[in-house]
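PROTEIN DATA CARD
Card holder: GNAT family N-acetyltransferase
Chain length: 401
Origin: Roseateles oligotrophus
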Amino acid sequence: MDFTDEIQMGIGPTGLGDYVIRVHDSPGQLPLAEWNALLSAQQQPTPFMRLEYLSALHESGSATTATGWQARFASLWRQGQLLACCPAYLKSHSYGEYVFDWAWADAYQRHGLSYYPKLLVAVPFTPVPGSRLLAINAEARQLLMHGLQAMAAKLGLSSAHLLFGDSADLSAAQGQAWMQRQGVQFHWQNRSPLRYATFEEFLASMQREKRKKIQQEQRKVREAEIHFEVRQGSQISERDWDFFYHCYQLTYRAHRSTPYLTREFFRLMSRDMTENWLLFTAKRGPEAIATSLVALDPVQGHAYGRYWGAVESVSCLHFDACYYQPLAWCIANGYSRFEGGAQGEHKMARGLLPVSTHSSHWLAHPDFSQAVADFLAQEGQAMRGYVNELEEHQPFKACPQ
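Structure generated from the sequence above:
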């Protein structure tokens, strides 16, 4: 294996046969059909790993060098065939990742060392678990992982990280002795033997207290004379997208922050991944007052809560727009999973249950690596206890199987 000179990495052969690692400073340099073909063959594909999605992040100015995401996509080739690939970035900060390592960066700084840039394998701003190392087989995935670590070492980077990977990714990372970190998210599933036919059946499966709470929250929205319009794919007009983006900006402004994603990103999504988007618009009469955007994987039957915003405050509208309306839509349309995004144990009361997430980490400095390993061991034990405690507080009459 060697790194090609075309990206001017200056990394020599590593003696692993006639494989070649290429490093790309733009996702547009990779073959779209071949990338997506590898994605479709993975055990946990998501629409966020499609090359159109990653390219839109880059082309729209959302994830670029200027915003701290310097593309270094890696690909593994043999005799002209793409065997493995992944999105990778040199990061100059830790924003937009949702796996927090600020304390590690601070420790480096206090010891006069540079934590940034670091190498990150992830989908920017998208904490959705799924395949990150796309590969034709386990051997190719392991070789790609080896190449990533070799890249980080040769560039003198402090560390390398793989976020929200699937079990195949974790196995490849463990093969390189990367440290493992556990997190938790909250997902809803509609699967046998429950298989709700209606939203009312879903509510009926919940404990009385939880069911009444949801009904009260939805009643408050109705009493405010709010109704919802739902549009999917090509039904979402440019005007709809404009109003959504206005609301999206307001959400960040309320938290004294600025949006990660540009309006151009959503324009590219409406053009290149049309059928992957579902928009809920809350209206009072003809006036739109809030929106909730959900991403769809029609092949897998999975939905992903993404962004929300409102031009005025209405009691409980957030819960209805971001959870109850999407769950009702999923049930009506035969979708089996709804992922509610990062963090938020309040989601359990809405029927979303805890699911473990995973990330993998390599630190070059041996002393810091050992310190982080000790920290992760303690954190992991605490996280397992936290998840076990959450599972003891199921919102359902009987735990879904």
